[in-house]
Structure prediction request, 715 residues.
Amino acid sequence: MTPMKLLLVDDETDFLNTLLKRMQRRNVDVQGVGSGESALAWLATHATDVVILDVRMPGMDGIETLREIKKKFPLTEVIMLTGHASMEVAIEGMEMGAFDYLMKPMDMDELLYKAEDAFKKKMIHEGKIRQMAEQLR
Amino acid sequence: MNRNLPPLSPYYRSLTRNMVLLVMVISFTPMVLVTGIILDQFSSSHHEKVFAHLGELVLKHKQNIDSFLDEKVQNIRFLADSIDFDRISQPGIIAEDLSRLQSAYGTVFVDLGVVNEQGQQVAYAGPFNLENAIYADADWFKKAIQSNYFTSDVFLGLRGSPHFIIAVRKTWQGQKWIIRATIDFLSFNRLVEKVRIGETGFAYILNREGQFQTKPIFDFTPTLDIYSRYFATLSRMGKEVEIQERLDGAGVKSLYVSALLKGGDWLLVYKQASSDAFSDLHNAQIIALVFFVLGGIAIVAMAVWMSGRMVRRIATSDKEKEIMNEQVIETGKLASVGELAAGIAHEINNPVAIMVEEAGWLQDLMEDGAYKNEADIKEFERALNQIRTQGKRCKEITHKLLSFARKTDSRIEDFEIGHLIEEVVALSAQRAKYSNVELTTRLEPKLPAISASHSELQQVFLNLINNALDAMDKTGGTLEISARQEEGQILIGVADNGPGIPKANLARIFDPFFTTKPVGSGTGLGLSICYGIIQKMGGTIAVKSALDVGTTFEIRIPVKTDDTVENRTVVSASDTCN
Prediction:
């Protein structure tokens, strides 16, 4: 099984960097970007399994980014990071196809656990597609 | 008024006074006008009626008296024609004539005499012993000898009692003869005496010298010049009756109705005190006055009572409205604080998340036991510094919130507005950042102090900024808050370049409960509260908006008048609570 590829999107650089360091120390293949726009740019050029997306960002916010990701990369799973007061946004995101949401500040293990779940879901999903393609051949 | 009620403030007292005055003016004006006009009309028509009546009366009596005198003259002339002057001096002849006269015309004729040209009474019949009396020097004789017939004034004459004479001149055998008869004064007097109206109305007759020709019922001395004026007026004007109203000798306002008698020699005067003549009018006036006074008292009482009640009610409803307003403002304040709290929670979440991550990172490092080498220690230090930095960030946020929350009472203070605007802008900065709004301020330095409630003004700006950010949430934009001094006012502009407000909504945005936000998102109270707060401060708030260009709210707040205070936030906390 190919290792999971993660993308972390958050405008708060300090948070992003620390989170990246911690994940990388756990040998997670993770990259970080600072905005919705750069996330889309990254996805366009790099295969990514799970995107961890902050909802509140200046510029293109989390919901818009999610919409774009689901449009352009429908198989990519998205886990949203929200603040307490934006549960409505979390619900909106879930309705738009996000895999799950987490509230900041979150537990690293929980985050990775959910990321794994998302990755597994994606793998199963892709497996099915592959099987169907093979049967077709 | 009810003594249990608390005294009203000067504002309500003057309101009551104005209402009382207004009600009284409105009620009294028509009442005075109507009463006045009616009384005036009634008075003039009554005067006319009285004048006409008295004129008629006097005219009738004038004719009566004149015809009485004429008749007497005719009687004597008739008698004179049958007198045989040869035999007249014989005894008994004249007595026979007198008795014929008296039997034919009553006892009006007292006596009868024949006087020759020399003034000697050649024959006499009557109660007095006047045979051969010499009248050559008597006034009446001198006048009587000049004309065919003559009626004298009343005089005492030889007999020493008032009487007057009717004389007829005859010419016989070249000699002039005077046949004279004396008219019974009492029966003549009766003609005038019976003219009696009311308590003070009576009549009398004067001659041109102002001497009474009748005995007036009330004893008084006539004022000569006035009567001579009557003579003059009546003969000049050709009027038959003259009516005047003037003060009499005793200072009583009286009516004088006069007519000429006896070819202008005598004046018949009817005199009556005005108050008596117009007693009906007086009664009507007194009744009107009584009703006027009673009505006036009723109006005043009603005005005072009603105004008092109404003002009480106004005061009560004002108080209720004030309480309601306060509650609405309080509700609005809570709503905006709630909105603020959501923003703050977000803002505080970020540094907390960073701290949690850093702490987690440190834990990771320690778990690996990798805290011995140089690089790891550096990493430790960096992480700890980061935690400290983020902790400070949290502290700043909570301080901002606290400084906001601390000033939630609505005491009136004097402060400079710039600082307050900066505070609110700082609170909203994070929200603006996430809405992609560039939030800027352009504040003129050293603005004069204004007198206002700190927390209420905070609420105004918070509301305006929140609205602008809501409007530009999707699009982003710029929001500039400016403050400058202009003609004793501070002019604050909150200008965004958002989507603008449609014309249809523009007129209603300050109405309570008007909102364009979906149900549950907005109370529709924000701007109406802003409006109320600014109005209460004596300022104005206005809005200009163009679609796709932006919206500008313009607030004008009067500068505190007594002294300009520079850049001090709180000068003095006044004790007056409003």
